[in-house]
Amino acid sequence: SMKTLLILLAAIAIVLIVISIVHPVGKKIALYAILIGIALIMLLPFYMMFVMSTLKTNEIYSFPPIVTFGSNLLANFASMNKQVDLIRAFLNSCIVTFSYTILVLFFCSIGGYAFSVYDFPGKKVLFTILLGTMMIPATAGMIPWFIMMSRLGWVNDFKALIIPGCANAFGIFWMRQYCQNNIPKALMEAARIDGCSEWTIFFRVIAPILKPAYASLGIMQFVNQWNEFTQALIILRKEKMFTLPLLLRSMVSDRGTDYGAMMLASTCAVLPLLVCFLCASKFFMDGLTAGAVKE
User: Fold this and answer.
1) b/e for 202-214, b at 16 or more Cβ within 10 A?
2) Distance (Å, rounded) from C-alpha 192 to C-alpha 73?
3) CB 3.0 to 4.6 Å from 229: which of 35, 60, 179, 245, for a disulfide?
4) Contacts for 250 with CB less than 8 Å, ≥ 6 apart
């Protein structure tokens, strides 16, 4: 019961406090125990999603909840394929997300580099306005955004999800801060003396230095766009254009929802994000910490 769980957690906390006071390395043991506990709590929803993808709907609703894998995986897979076209939605999400992420990294790195390195009239004013746009809620621009996309003829078109945000304020700010702390001006001056053009300097000298920033910004933008629901719901009307979030929403029905099949589809939608983060986690952490201390 919940009362028993709370008592157990309180007992564990008391033991950790005593260990941290009594034992010489107790503080480190307690710290690692707390971090492991937090990590397990964070992983629990993913684990339960994987478990539910192997259960029947009535088993998912059972109490106490089932925490071991079931035997209904193949039936859920068949039900999922009967309800939706997961492969098409997966490809649609890949097209939108990869295109968007690549364009964001390109335009935001150029914009951030320009704000960091070059001096031009109105630089501070433009950057202040740029930061100001980050304070405006995204929902406040939904209606103007839809009107613009409609007039451009981009309803039911992936361009509406890709192009408007490919030079977003957060990305430019992120790259500008990284460039300020990690690009020595002497390196640029040496490249100019060697006869390099400004574009050559950026692509051949600056871009390799920006790899950690590219990785961290790329992961954040990739995850945000992969999970984008509201804009896709507004702009995409045809089922063959649905991305994964819209596909999952379409599996909810008033006549009854097969939650086992839905959890399996959710698992398929989440796995690419987990793989992406695990593969680039080292660069992600480097990008977050680089420039934290300015020498």
Assistant:
1) beebbbeebebbb
2) 61
3) 245
4) 84, 239, 242
